[in-house]
Amino acid sequence: MSMFAEVTISRSLKEVLAITRHVPFRVTVSLIIIGLFAFAAMAPKVLQTHDPLAIDLRSSLQSPSIIHWLGTDQLGRDLYSRIVEGTGQSLAIGLGATALSMSIAIVFGIAAALSGGVVDSILSRIVDVLFAIPTLLLALVFVTVFGPSVLTEVIAVGIGTAPGYARMIRGQMLAIKGTGYVEAAKVLGHPFPGIVWRHILPNAMSPLTAMMTIGVGQAIIWASGLAFLGLGVAPPAPEWGALLNAGRNYVIYAWWLEIIPGLAVTAFALSVTIVGRHLQDRLEGRT
């Protein structure tokens, strides 16, 4: 290895250490947990110890052991492998629902804040009505009408969480719309679409980056709640909420079927919430 390469690696390590030195321990742990779940979602076969769909009735309802690390379900399927297999579906639901809700919220928030007058009043009242309906109830109605599937879960949770984001985006847009640098850009004759694109939208969306991170964890919890009520992904899909729904009938004598999938949901949601709060604090401090 050349001296130049050694100096480059040494400098890179110092930069990494300098960055991590300013990151709280809880955030570092949360990032590691998120990274493990992300790896499980992208390469589940690497981490699995058994076929997640293989039925073995002779091994049904076995407690955690060396062979089956997290035990087995009522059909003898390895719970650890099923949790790993279901990570991709659960994360896809969380990311998809958050992306959909933010897209809807951006359209409503921008249209309401920039239009003003009657348009703002009408759109604000629509958002207020939707915001008054509980998220889970709105999602339940949608899934009941269109049937349970990954797509309907994404749409249901996305629509249910969109009103809250829309109100935040509208508030951010109105606050930035009246700032001095926006007024100065208007006085200088800059076109209004350019002012929105270059000044208003980037500054309004920056604080919401952290909220999007937190929203992924919340979306997974909402989707798991739907699945627990029997309105989630159909069996034998090992989505986390479906695992919770399947294990509730055996919770008295097979606690691992309910507790361990619940811990997976909690660990991921808590980790993304901690990272999101940290980003929010950093962005607010920068502002």
Automatic annotation (TrEMBL):
The chain crosses the membrane at residues 23-43, 91-114, 126-144, 208-233, 253-276. PROSITE patterns: ABC_TM1. It is found in: Cell membrane. InterPro entries: BP-dependent_transpt_permease, MetI-like, MetI-like_sf. It is a multi-pass membrane protein. It holds the Pfam family BPD_transp_1. Keywords: Cell membrane, Membrane, Transmembrane, Transmembrane helix, Transport. Residues 87-276 form the ABC transmembrane type-1 domain. It comes from the Bacteria. Belongs to the binding-protein-dependent transport system permease family. This is Peptide/nickel transport system permease protein. The lineage of its organism: Bacteria, Pseudomonadati, Pseudomonadota, Alphaproteobacteria, Hyphomicrobiales.
